[in-house]
Amino acid sequence: MKYDAINSQLFIKNRKNFMAQMKPNSLAVFNSNDIYPVSADSTLPFEQHRDIFFLSGVDQEESILILFPDCPKESLREVLFLRETNEHIAVWEGEKLTKEKALETNGIKNVHWLQDLEKVLAEMMALADTVYINTNEHYRANVETETREARFTKWLLNKYPAHSVAKSNPILQRLRSVKDPIEIDLIQKACDITEKGFRRVLDFVKPGVWEYEIEAEYIHEFIRNRSKKFAYTPIIASGNNANVLHYIENNQQCKAGDLILMDVGAEYANYSSDMSRTIPVSGRFTDRQKEVYNAVNRVKNDATKMLVPGTLWAEYHVEVGKLMTSELLGLGLLDKADVQNEDPNWPAYKKYFMHGTSHHMGLDTHDYGLLHEPMQANQVFTVEPGIYIPNEGFGIRLEDDVVIQETGEPFNLMRNIPIEADEIEDIMNK
């Protein structure tokens, strides 16, 4: 792994918190992700299942974690199964976790090789009444591929049909949404790497560069700072491309006078950052561009102040809509009649700002978190309003990542990343 070792106390605490919410005499199973094939002998880069990583820190394939807090046999209360390593694997694939290294990583003392799974699991299941299965119930999830977790669940329930079944996901949604200080430090590290990339790009951009060249500048800076990749597919959208919300082609030339909307973020240790900035290709905003830019920035700043404990996500977005409506009226993009005659289910401001303002962020860019429950301290949210004006040939989105505090305004993890229009112009023209 490129990242520094994570304090094992994080994973010990996460397991303890999860097990505290399990039903009596139950066990829970968590699987690593598959390595997905492309064609011939090619595979996609491995990405660990975030849940087993959250609970164990294990960042390799073919790993299984079983938690059984009420097991009468103490040694079987936390069990980790790993693919057995040997000298041949070390030569061809590199270092894998040994039992000793796994203990150092996550504090789990009982580590078995994967070949012993069925024997040990049979002993555990004979002592358990309920088994927790791990399903993906994220509100944005749309999974068509059968995952390793899903295959294992199918096998498990077929082999042990008499057990009661419970879901891990509701517990994980709540636990993962509230960040430990160690996690916040890791997200801060991802944001700091993103800052380095952005500052590099501010020095690089000029009329005539290509969107993919900007993308390359980011990934260069990310990798040299121990990130393995973008946290999500980057958006580098110049001119009217910015009005396509998920534009990822990044294959057009940036022209003088245009703006570039960049929605990018580095990952670090599997934790995400998520930044949006909009900059002028020529190093200066036009008066109109700056007028719209400052309107978006005001909405972002005012929306951020609403992210406090007890806030409901749906009500928050209604209030942000009111802020945006006011700014759009001031920009002449809406008039009073538009607002008076609007459809409550699709307010007038949605013509220019059609997406949400905030989402949970952490191990996943769109992280776990139950949106119907009030916000809590130490949850991390994005704040990302935008105004998109195809008729004027540009769109603007600004986005920071913030941590909700017990009292007062959120803490901005991207506070050091330039965002004021004048500061961006000064840096680009220094």
Write the layout of secondary structure elements.
Blueprint: H1 9-19, E1 26-31, E2 37-39, E3 42-43, H2 50-56, E4 64-67, E5 78-82, H3 87-93, H4 99-106, E6 110-113, H5 117-127, E7 130-133, H6 148-159, E8 164-167, H7 169-177, H8 181-204, H9 211-223, E9 235-238, E10 259-264, E11 267-268, E12 271-272, E13 275-280, H10 287-305, H11 313-330, H12 336-340, E14 380-383, E15 386-389, E16 394-397, E17 400-403, E18 411-412, H13 421-428
Parallel strand pairs: 1-7, 5-6, 7-8
Antiparallel strand pairs: 1-4, 2-3, 4-5, 9-10, 10-13, 11-12, 14-17, 15-16, 17-18
Main beta sheet: 6 strands, mixed
As residue ranges, the low-confidence spans are none
Helix content: 25-40%
Number of H- or I-type helical stretches: 13
Rg on CA atoms, Å: 24 Å
What proportion of the residues form beta strands (DSSP E)?
15-25%
End-to-end separation in angstroms reads 37 Å
- Mean pLDDT, to the nearest integer, reads 96
Q: Tally of extended strands?
A: 18
Structural class estimated from helices and strands: alpha+beta
Strand order of the largest sheet: 6-5-4-1-7-8
Sum up the overall morphology in one term.
globular
